[in-house]
Design goal:
By secondary structure, this protein is mainly alpha-helical. It is built from two helices and no strands.
Length: 62
């Protein structure tokens, strides 16, 4: 599987990229704000997972 195939699969799984044709400026701004909020949400989840992963590693190393 090459990178293009993988990226296409990931994009389809998450509904990305979304067609921006026909969206008004206000709609695009709202969409961008929603994406930024989702990125923050993902960042928080990643930090939580990193903490849990680090805790598990520390538990099993001892």
């Amino acid at each position: 599987m090459n990178d293009d195939d993988f990226n296409a699969g990931v994009k389809m799984a998450f509904g990305l990229p979304r067609s921006l044709e026909g969206m008004s400026i206000d709609s695009l701004k709202e969409y961008r704000a929603a994406l930024e909020q989702e990125i923050k949400h993902v960042d928080i989840a990643l930090e939580h997972r990193k903490g849990a992963h680090a805790g598990a590693e520390a538990l099993f190393k001892s």
